[in-house]
Amino acid sequence: MDVRWSKSWGARMLALLVVTVGAPGAWAQQQQQGAGCADGQREGFVDQARYPNIAGCSGGWSIAGVLISTPGIKPYCPQSPLNATDKPACKRAGGDDGKNPWGEGCNVEDLCASGWHVCADTHDVEANSPTGCKGATRSGDPALFFATRQSGTGHGVCATGTDTGPKCDSSTGVPTCKPTTRTSNDLFGCGNLGAPAGPACGVLDRFSHDACSSLGEPWLCGRSPEYCEAQIVRKPHPGRGGVLCCRKRMEVARGARPARPALVGTDLADASTHETKPAPNTSDSPGRLRAAALADLVGASAP
Hints:
It contains six helices and nine strands. It has helices spanning 3-21, 24-35, 122-128, 229-232, 268-273, 286-301; strands spanning 54-58, 116-118, 145-147, 152-154, 157-158, 188-191, 195-196, 206-207, 241-247. The model is unreliable at 1-6, 15-24 and 250-303 (pLDDT under 50).
């Protein structure tokens, strides 16, 4: 056999395979980004065609909290650490179908795929889901609760207003408060598990109740009375849900752009201008560039 011909044939077959199905790493990344969950499999809002911009992702995490720090405002529960959970801690290895289902060394952001983020609040969910929380679970699903970063002022009241006065903390139940480090009471989200959320929570229909008593283990949120579930929540087991993941605004699927843009996770320039990014030049798409590069490779290998 002509060795040069054999090598050329092998190179051509490899090029054909990669151009047709894509490189394995790229295919896996595309699957994760489409699903919205780091492990490539969503457990809430499972109909990707209907819900391309929101996903319920089950899994555990050991680094506590969903609360984001507000500069200049001290936490209501200073005795507990306020962890930075806005960036992944275990390289997105979390998720009930992932490498680390119990979430050891992970935080909530590790359950979301690259290009997605833990949904910030009721407005973020409204912007990314055409039906709010409806459709998060289906008949026959196990008990599931998917948390957002939305927190409240107590008594199941979401902090969705603009007030930052002295009555705005984790114990007053005031509905007009702005979400800050001091409004850390309860967890709010979607699912078929949890107590019914109040009208101040907008589209979010479930909440944890005191010390996550309406969720049960493995949701660990301290002891009653507890005012800082959003700051201290841990979940050392993949069962009974996880978090809601929303698409970043810059990556909202074409034709499914929400009426109210979600600004969490965008770059500052994009967030400040609200400009729509131009459509990519399909002539320089990754598939075409990859095909061209492989064609050059095959040409170089030809006898």
